[in-house]
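SEVERITY: medium
COMPONENT: batch folding queue
REPORTER: lab tech (J.R.)

DESCRIPTION
The queue accepted two submissions in a row. Attaching both inputs and their returned structure tokens so the on-call engineer can compare them side by side.

ATTACHMENT 1
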Amino acid sequence: MTSHLSPAQLANSIPNDGSEAAFVWLGGSDARREGQWTWSNNGDLFWQGDFNGAPVNGRFTNWGVQPDNLGGAENALAMGLANWPEPFYDLGEAGQWNDLDAGNKLVYVIEYDAVVERLTGYLDQPADQGVYSGVGMIRGWALSEEGVERIEVYIDGRYAFDVPYGDPREDVGFAYSDIDGSSTSGFSVPFNYSALAPASTPFQSL
């Protein structure tokens, strides 16, 4: 996570509690009832008590030597991005949780279900139900608004190899002009069909 934050963001995400370490908000709180830690998105109770407490129903927790409700006002859950506090670093390690005053202005984490754009494509060769022998081509095109990382070929349900991606496809570029990279969405590679076992099932390209 720290690799995605600038030095200024890290410096501005250090709470006013003497820890001298950057933290990010995680969305848990015991503000409604001291020692009853719940998630803000669904209200699930995941921890009861202070640092001598226990997780609820086996739910995941990752506290340092926390929570301690220092000063009586630490009711918000945060995760450390470095060991804390200076100079002994004996209360928590990077990645562990701490309870902090909700008045601190910190970077925060948002969890959400990603919407994955569907993949559009076509396998020109080998054609469906086609019969091939000797050296031919595996050829087609693939598009996604999120980009295509690679093209994988599976034979009989098992990964075989990757196919180079990025061949010119003016026809696809014309048909899908609203998608970046559509004019270079092709893939192709020579393949020896005679090397396949007689019972091999059709190709799958992903």
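ATTACHMENT 2
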Amino acid sequence: MQAIADLRGWSPLVALQIEHNLIERTGERDLIPMAREMGLGVVPYSPPAGGVLTGKYSRADLTAPDAVAGDGTRRDFNLANGGLTGRNLDIADVVKEVAGELGHTPAQVGLAWSLHRPGVTASLIGARTLAQPKDNLGAPEVDFTPAQLARLDEVGAIELGFPHDMLASDRMRAATHGGLKVETRRR
């Protein structure tokens, strides 16, 4: 799209809006690196992952007797779309731990992590209550230690898969680049 806009004299794209949070990180495979390379800002939505990262769900919600009935609650929505899983609750547990260490809410920690990501220029938030956006305003005050950021990055890490894993292997680097490590250009 950038090339078409450039060739036609149109305004270029300026941002990429995708779901990105500690649970949904698949954009890190290709979309976020593409945006950074093309000079696009990344504007992630759903930093609290549908509320899963706020600490309002527990493992009991995974097996609640009425969970299958689907009565239209946020929990039912998260169960139905795969957002409420054991893996995701493990991530939420680490978010709660870090929030406790910092004296902030889990929602603030999730949003602050999002804002710390390379290329992120803003984060879109949604709110069901007036208290939620007020709470979110505390996110810029979150001051992570490097160890806390590393814990958060690690707990929600995804495998980049093909072709990233193959291209990162020593054997492939030796075959294609003579063993040199190719880095992205600096702007």
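NOTES FROM REPORTER
The chain has a mean pLDDT of 88.
No errors were logged for either attachment.
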